[in-house]
Amino acid sequence: MDFLATVGGVAALGAAAHKYELVEIPQLEHAWKVAAVAGVAAVGAALQTAAEFNPLARSMQLLSTFQSIESSTQADVSSSIDAYNSLYDETKTDDERNQAYSSLVDSYYNLVTLFYEWGWGSSFHFAYRMLGESFSESIRRHEYYLMSFLGAGKGDRVLDVGCGIGGPLTNIARFEGPEVDLTGITINQHQVSRGNTRCKQLGLSHRCRLVRGDFTQMPFKDAVFDGAYSIEATCHAPDRRTVFSEVYRTLKPGSYFASYEWVITENHDPNNAKDVDMLHKVMQGDGLPSLNTIEEVKEAMRDVGFEVVMDRDMAKDPEQVVPWYQPLQSTWNPLSFRFQFNWLGRTVMSNLLRVLELFWLAPAGTARVQDMLQLAAQGLVYCGERQTFTVMHILVGRKPLDA
Ligand SMILES: C[S@@+](CC[C@H](N)C(=O)[O-])C[C@H]1O[C@@H](n2cnc3c(N)ncnc32)[C@H](O)[C@@H]1O
């Protein structure tokens, strides 16, 4: 990148010198145009170098990893994204998506897991920020807060329901200390492999593991866990009862289940076309078969046997200074990761990916995956700003002692 900035800068200076007749370069008939293009390249490359996270280098690394995953799993990105998107065309109903939900969710996470880890980190969830808090501190606080409802102690076994690549699981393992054992379940094999590699790298594999399975039919015996939590995951189930009943079955009597739920709020207006359209973008961009209200989710929790001991929409918490959807809000600051969310950043990114696909530097279909993630971002920001939807309604249930 330094090299590109230097070459661009020298070319810009050379073309400008020619224009002012300080030097004679016969080939340069359009000196100003050359100077402008070279100057932009130089500034762009210099900005990339100056930016803390060097987005261009990281993007190239992401694309090459995406390519190697595509060849090792023999999953064709182009047909996967087409098949996925077809489930959301206008002719498809919630029922059809619900029937296809497990393959829908699995193919969604095959496509996006790498992008999530690259853009967000190892914990795939939102958090609002409090005064003086960094993004990663807020993410961890959000996890520890949920965990605090389980009251885990010496020798306890805890389940993470829909665990991603295990970011929350390993953070919580460190927080809880050496005597708590954690198991995560996810439907996606790539997440299991990546997560177990992380557990090993972090020296936690003796008490942390990820297993592949559908959380609506868990591969665990009855009453084996002392607590369970779930972060922004149960919304992927067509009916919450299917996952809550499995959590209930695998918990010991008297144990707690705490969850951050994605739900529609009372502010959503089904007669407002924009509200409906944006919610559809959230569903399509986030791999959700259908959506529910908190009342429906609480009812599902009670129906399977839990006592609901607490619930609150944390998006309304008064002490926050940065809302949960802020990382997805667009900005014109070219050094910010969020530049990609304005119309210019979106267009440049999408076309750049298409060019990279043409030269086999990115798997065919990558630009369409990016477009789908942009849908999610637009929908979530709209719904977050208007509070028509929340990603952090905390719900805590207890399995009765006499169950
Ligand atoms: C938004 S991610 C959240 C991941 C994790 N809780 C975190 O915060 O990093 C949702 C997770 O739910 C998992 N998931 C969705 N449906 C599932 C199912 N039927 N069975 C198991 N896992 C599922 C996905 O594979 C993914 O890991």
From TrEMBL:
Its EC number is 2.1.1.-. One of its GO terms (biological process) is sterol biosynthetic process. GO terms for cellular component: endoplasmic reticulum. Transmembrane segments: none annotated. It is an enzyme of class 2 (transferase). It holds the Pfam family Sterol_MT_C. InterPro entries: Erg6_SMT_methyltransf, Methyltransf_11, MeTrfase_SMT, SAM-dependent_MTases_sf, Sterol_MeTrfase_C. Residues 108-400 form the SAM-dependent methyltransferase Erg6/SMT-type domain. SUPFAM superfamilies: S-adenosyl-L-methionine-dependent methyltransferases. It comes from the Eukaryota. One of its GO terms (molecular function) is sterol 24-C-methyltransferase activity. Pathway: Steroid biosynthesis; sterol biosynthesis. Keywords: Lipid biosynthesis, Lipid metabolism, Methyltransferase, S-adenosyl-L-methionine, Steroid biosynthesis, Steroid metabolism, Sterol biosynthesis, Sterol metabolism, Transferase. PANTHER family: HYPOTHETICAL LOC100005854, ZGC:194242. Belongs to the class I-like SAM-binding methyltransferase superfamily. Erg6/SMT family. This is Methyltransferase.
